[in-house]
UniProtKB/TrEMBL annotation:
It comes from Calcarius ornatus. Residues 165-186 are annotated as: Disordered. One of its GO terms (biological process) is innate immune response. The gene is Tifa. This is TRAF-interacting protein with FHA domain-containing protein A. The keyword Cytoplasm applies. Pfam families: FHA (PF00498). InterPro entries: FHA_dom, SMAD_FHA_dom_sf, TIFA. Gene3D superfamilies: 2.60.200.20. Belongs to the TIFA family. Keywords: Cytoplasm, Immunity, Innate immunity.
Amino acid sequence: MSSFEEAETEETVTCLHLTFYHPGQGEKMMFRCLDFCRRQQLRADDTAKFGRDSSLCHYSLVDTRVSRIQFSLQFYRKLHSSEYAFEIKNLSKKTKLTINQTELGYLNKIDLPWKCIICFGDYQILAEIQEGEAVDYFETHLHLAEAPILQERCLPSLQPIPENGISPSFPLGQGKSPTEIDENEL
């Protein structure tokens, strides 16, 4: 047997990719304490904390509007499963945390979707989970976005547009309710 055949099977590592954006990042440099150059490895039982207090947080944001500990991410294995996941918990008493439009108050927590946008204040963080098999540790890989992750979107029109493309002449919401019309009646 060759040494190649006797070598242990290489494990893939779960990696949490986090892409950060803030509109004032150019002039305020709030991400200067984050390491965007390489992946960082954390033990599976570590809680990754984000906030402005560098003595308590793995990931420090240099901004007085950020809580000392803003939020945490906990790596865990789902019950009766070989699947791994992350749980996100809001640790700020003053600022709500939003994960894909789900608002978390102080000490609220949810499972982090495999791809989501985390927002608080003017901060936007795109989180993407790359699955792996390693049980003792996970990795984080930080990225910096040049443009907003969450684009301002116009609200869709509340007025339905029929298939023929002609909008009804009456505005909805002024005492008239929508009625169904058979295609053959047009």
